[in-house]
C-alpha cells in the first residue's frame, strides 16, 4: 500500500536536506538515487528512524507514493532531467506530477511541460534558493508549470518553505510553464549583482582606505542594522573575521578567481534577447569572467599603469557615501531585474505577481533582505507599476543617494579601483532619467551608412524617414525593424 506523500529522486546534499525538511514537517517521503547504495546509506544514516522510504528502483518508488503521485527531481540540470522524465512517464498515470527542482533553463521547462502535459501528466519547474541550509530549514520556493498541479503540492511546498518576517510562506505560484524557473534565473542574476557590488565596496574600503579586516567587519556589521540589512551583507561581515589555524584571515588567502554556474549568464542573454537594459547584472557576470583571467591580469599588472593618487578626504565621509552608493545601486539592480520579468511575462503571457515575487524572496533565499519588503510595498501600492524607480519610496531613495553615489564612482576612478557594477548602475540611472539621449545621432549614422531610416520628433511615432545624406544615395531605404 502506498505510504509516501511525495517522492524525491537525487540524493546529493540538496535532495537529502529537502527530504529531511519534508519529513520534519510531518510528510512521509520516498527516495531513490541512480547509485542505489546512496539510498541505503541515507536511510540507514541521516534518515534513520525517520519516515523516509528507501527505494531501489523507479518502479518501487512510483508504487510507494499516494495518488496523484508527486515525484521531485533533484538532479543535475540538462539532459539528465530529460532522461529521468522519459523513464518516469511510462510508469505514471494521468494526473501524476513530475517536479524539477534543479536550476534548469526556463526554456527547457517550457518544452518539458508541453511534453508531460501531452501525455496526460502534470509538470512543475520550481526554483529553490537558499543552498543546503535553506533546503534543510526552509528555502524560498518558486514553482511554475501546470496550474492544475499547484493545489496538490501547495501544502507541502508552503510548509517546508522559509517564512518572511510577517510569517508568510516564502513560496507562491509563479505562473504557467517556465515561469518558476525564469523567476529563479532572475533571482540568481540579481544575486550576481548584489555580490559584485559588495565586492567593489570591499575593494574600495581595503585599497582606497587601507582598512583592516576587523575595521571592514565593523562597517558591514553596522550596515546590516540599517537599510542594507541582508543575508549577503551579514555573511560578508562574518567572512571578514574568520581566521585559519595559523591566525591568518581566510579571505586574504583565497585566490581572486570567481566561479559561476551559468544562471547569471542566462539572465544576461535573456535580457539581450528580449531587449532589456540589464546593465548591472551584465557587468557582474563580466567581472567574474575578468577575474578568471588571473594569469593574464598578473602579466598586465607588470605593464599597464594606473593613477598614483591616494585618498585624501575624510575616511568616515567616504564610508557613509559607500553605504548610500551601494543602496542606490541595489535599487537599480532590482529595478532592472523586475523590468526583465515584466518583459518576459508579456512575451510568454505569464501573469506574474511582482509583489508576490518580492514577498517570497524575503526569507530563505540568498538575496533575502529587509529591502525586499519595500519592493512588495511598492507593488501593493501599484500592481501595474512600470518601474521601481517610479515608486515614490524608491525615487526618493535614489534622489537622496545620488550625490554620494557620484562621489564614490569619481573616487574609484581617481584611485584606479574598478567599480563596474556600481558605475554601470549610475550610468543607467542617468540614462533612464534623461528625456532625450544621443540616439538621434546614432539613428542618423545608421541611416547615413545603411539607409536604416529614423522617426522624427515633429511627426507621429511610427512614421519612418530616410535622408539622402550625401546627395548620391537615392531614395531607397532598408526595412525598419527593432531587435
Structure description:
The protein is α/β, with parallel strands linked by helices and 483 residues long. 53% of the residues lie in helices and 7% in strands. The protein contains 20 helices and eight strands. Strands 3-2-1-4-5-6-7-8 form an eight-stranded mixed β-sheet, sandwiched between helices. β5, α5 (106-118) and β6 form a beta-alpha-beta unit. α1 (13-24) packs parallel to α6, α8 crosses α13 (279-292) and α8 packs antiparallel against α15 (315-348).
Keywords:
alpha/beta, 7% strand, single chain, eight-stranded mixed sheet, globular, 483 residues
Could you give a quick summary of the protein structure above?
Helix content is 53%, strand content 7%. It is an alpha/beta fold and 483 residues long.
Q: Level of helix content?
A: 40-55%
Largest sheet: 8 strands, mixed
Strand order of the largest sheet: 3-2-1-4-5-6-7-8
Q: Give the overall form.
A: globular
Radius of gyration: 26 Å
Strand content: 5-15%
Give start-end ranges of low-pLDDT stretches: none
Number of strands: 8
Q: Helix/strand/pairing class, anyone?
A: alpha/beta
Number of helices: 20
Distance between the termini: 56 Å
SSE succession? EHEHEHEHEHEHEHEHHHHHHHHHHHHH
List the helices and strands and how they pair.
Blueprint: E1 6-9, H1 13-24, E2 29-32, H2 36-43, E3 52-54, H3 58-63, E4 70-73, H4 79-88, E5 97-100, H5 106-118, E6 122-129, H6 131-137, E7 140-145, H7 150-160, E8 175-176, H8 179-208, H9 213-223, H10 231-239, H11 250-253, H12 263-274, H13 279-292, H14 294-301, H15 315-348, H16 354-360, H17 371-381, H18 392-415, H19 420-432, H20 439-450
Parallel strand pairs: 1-2, 1-4, 2-3, 4-5, 5-6, 7-8
Antiparallel strand pairs: 6-7
